[in-house]
């Protein structure tokens, strides 16, 4: 196995383990898979995957070194925590529904490419995960072809993981069961994301 293949495998392994860890992306994707048709839920997944590909591009371009500055990192944490608080509030305010068809077109603004992209964009843990995966796995003299592969793999792994969640939860029997419990799922997700935001705020204060 060549050194380049080793770099790729190392990066993909770290990325997959990090993405598989429950977080805002998982909770929101699960909610979208229950609440919306598969084709709609997948748009948010594409947004999340695109954001991760962007993070990889930035990390390869030197973002890792920028994040070593405490002021920049704490600012990123505060912005991310604030967005997660907003997301928790939105989830908490969602009203119970008895039929998936009750969702209007305006409701689908919470499940678009843009919503998935912004969700991940304001997730400081995702930025740090990918930056760490790049710094640990990839040497400084990486050529352009390896960089392109890294960016592509970040998108593919993210898409397959979150897309897999959509496919499993969108299975009719699972979806029908969770749809009955969706109000409880939203409240629980809201609470978990709230505590994630508080943890991020605490981390930001520690950096200052």
Automatic annotation (TrEMBL):
Chief place where the protein resides: membrane
Keywords assigned: Amino-acid transport, Cell membrane, Membrane, Transmembrane, Transmembrane helix, Transport
Family annotation (PANTHER family): ARGININE EXPORTER PROTEIN ARGO, ARGININE EXPORTER PROTEIN ARGO-RELATED
Keyword Transport: yes
Membrane topology summary: Multi-pass membrane protein
Residues passing through the membrane, by range: 6-28, 40-65, 71-89, 144-163, 184-202
Compartment annotation: Cell membrane
Molecular function GO terms recorded: amino acid transmembrane transporter activity
Matching Pfam families: LysE
Keyword RNA-binding: no
Name this protein carries in UniProt: LysE family translocator
Organism: Photorhabdus khanii subsp. guanajuatensis
Highest taxon listed in the record's lineage: Bacteria
GO cellular component: plasma membrane
């Amino acid at each position: 196995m060549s050194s380049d293949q080793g770099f790729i495998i190392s990066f993909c392994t770290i990325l997959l383990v990090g993405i598989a860890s429950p977080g805002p992306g998982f909770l929101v994707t699960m909610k979208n898979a229950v609440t919306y048709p598969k084709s709609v839920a997948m748009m948010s997944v594409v947004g999340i995957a695109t954001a991760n590909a962007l993070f990889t591009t930035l990390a390869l371009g030197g973002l890792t070194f920028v994040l070593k500055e405490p002021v920049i990192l704490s600012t990123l944490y505060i912005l991310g925590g604030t967005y997660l608080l907003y997301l928790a509030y939105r989830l908490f305010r969602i009203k119970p529904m008895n039929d998936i068809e009750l969702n209007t077109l305006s409701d689908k603004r919470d499940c678009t490419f843009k919503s998935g992209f912004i969700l991940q964009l304001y997730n400081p843990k995702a930025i740090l995960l990918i930056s760490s995966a790049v710094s640990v796995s990839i040497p400084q003299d990486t050529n352009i072809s390896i960089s392109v592969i890294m960016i592509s793999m970040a998108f593919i792994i993210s898409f397959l993981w979150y897309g897999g969640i959509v496919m499993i939860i969108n299975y009719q029997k699972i979806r029908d069961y969770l749809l009955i419990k969706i109000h409880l799922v939203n409240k629980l997700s809201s609470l978990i994301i709230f505590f994630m935001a508080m943890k991020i705020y605490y981390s930001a204060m520690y950096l200052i």
